[in-house]
Known about the structure:
The complex is a heterodimer of chains A (289) and B (304). Chain A is mostly helical and 289 residues long. Chain A has a single domain (51-258), classed as MetI-like fold (Orthogonal Bundle). Chain A contains 14 helices and no strands. In chain A, α13 packs antiparallel against α14 (256-284). With 304 residues, chain B is mainly α. Chain B has 2 domains: 2-71, no CATH class; 81-298, MetI-like fold (Orthogonal Bundle), CATH 1.10.3720. Chain B has helices spanning 2-9, 16-47, 54-57, 80-87, 91-122, 128-139, 143-157, 163-188, 191-199, 204-215, 217-233, 236-241, 249-254, 269-289, 294-298; strands at 62-65, 68-71. In chain B, strands 1-2 form a two-stranded antiparallel ribbon. In chain B, β1 (62-65) and β2 form a beta hairpin. In chain B, α5 (91-122) packs across α11 and α6 crosses α8 (163-188). Chain B starts with a helix and ends in a 6-residue tail after the last helix. The chains are: A mainly alpha (289), B mainly alpha (304). At the A-B interface, α1, α2, α4, α5 and α6 of A face α2, α3, α5, α6 and α7 of B.
Amino acid sequence: MAKSWYLFLVPLLALLSLIEFYPLLYSIYLSVTNATGGFSLTNYSAMVRDPAFWTSANVSILYSLSSTLLAVGIGVGLIYILAQDFRGRRLCEILFILPMAVAPIVVGTLWSPASVWDDIQSFMHFVLGFHYFDELTPLFYFPVMALSEAWEWAPLIMLVGLSVMNSVPRAIYEAADLHGASAWQKFRMVTLPAIFKSPVTQFVLVLRFIDAMRAFEIPLSWANWVGQPNTIGSPVDTLSLFLYKLLFIPSFGFPIGLVSAVAVSLFGITLVGAVILLRLLGAIGGITK
Amino acid sequence: MSEATQEKASPVEPTRGAKRLKRVLLYAAATLACLYSAWPLLVMGLEGYSIDLSPFFAGRGVRLVGGVPFYSGGVFPSPIHYLDALVIGAFPRLVANSLIIAFISISIALAVGIPVAYILARVEIKGKNIIAYLLLALRTISPFVVIVPLYITYSRIGLYDTYPGISLAEDMLVLSVVVWMLRGFFADIPKDVYDAASIFGNTEAQVFRRVVLPMVIPGIVVTALFALVLIWNEFLIAVTLTGPSTKTVAVGVWTGMTENQVNYRSVNWDDLNAAGTLAFAPAVAVMLSIRKYLAKGFSLGTAR
């Protein structure tokens, strides 16, 4: 009886073998072979000696840290607004989740210096009287790039936070009312701790961080906006974009071994994240719930 | 005067003025947050019509010239960029490609994933945790580990730039999402339903087919729509494995628009914005229609 259920796992394993296991093993194989087909670690040593790799690794870490933190900050702000009771709250809720539905490659275009930032520039210059600032300096465009990533994913933090908030027992809020707590105090002392102590939130945050570590589309757009689509090691090159440029810019000569080595290393990094995810999943109650 | 005495009477309670100030602040914050969320999309949609809002801040834009409103925003509003995207940009073809790829990909994911999701939610068999954890771990894989070998293999066996090839590859994006989301929908069905159905002598397989599956069809629709948006928005796998004949919307919006440019000042922004609007509008519409389930989808079923 129970054995027949295993039959249903066969298609899954077949599909996964085709699109995950086989390519993964192939990548590992490519990363440890040299041009003549023998085993060697030259790809990895070339990777470690490549300054562009280290720049991209740093950019990736800075990018995912800053965009995740920004998303948390913005998400908490959105939760605070939606935790209040006011007319138009439902409309706000709908508008707030819009960014999540937009393709990342379009988000890269939305937040480009020519669209939204053009308006903000004009507003700051003509209405507030600031000087025009140069959009092509990393000090300007890196934060904006991280902000656009946060713009897209803050609604996710918001949704998860709201679902956790709704599971907080009403009695706690009533007790806070009895002690004369203000709305802000209740939010800061009850809602926020509940949200960030919940393993569900932590799970989503780690997932978001891992996804940001692989961020590709938004940095790709920015590489074009700031005029660096054909150079590696620029301040917009995340690890994924570094790989993409190595692969698709002909002058690098399709360095398949190096690309595989970097990809496998990136895989190793995200695997650490996956282990953390699994532990959090255990705390949530896992799949047996 | 009476208001002032009231305020003195109850110094602990917030005054009416303070309450009103709080209201005003709340509405201001809500408005600001709404603008922040929707403004970029609005700007993109308008700039597709060559309506550039920034001159308004410069005191130009629309003003009265001899009593007649006169627009001096640079370019006159026109639908030409949308028409260009639809006709020259071959947008209908891109949409068809995206939908075909999504259809094949989601069909495979559902056919493979529905029984697995049911097993994860309801059936006690050994090793099912391994399956669940495997799917989660695969969700975190960098696509580059997979697409480079797939690109080489596809080129060799002729699957490059074909619907089956790219659809299979997109399954690495949606398969885990489909299984985890559906698992949640199966788990939401009360246990009594299973018990009641098996009392009438149904086998486990019959319970699944006759009782559980019909109940979970709305969940399947939601899952399919969610996966559809994921594939519609997906760029990296598509740009690597599709060629001229299977290009998807996300790829089509980007390539062609950004050729021969030095930096953002040399891009044809109106065309890019029109195409971008056509790309995000359907995705936003679908996502809003299933917005109750977004938390579930994006958190792999952990949040509800």
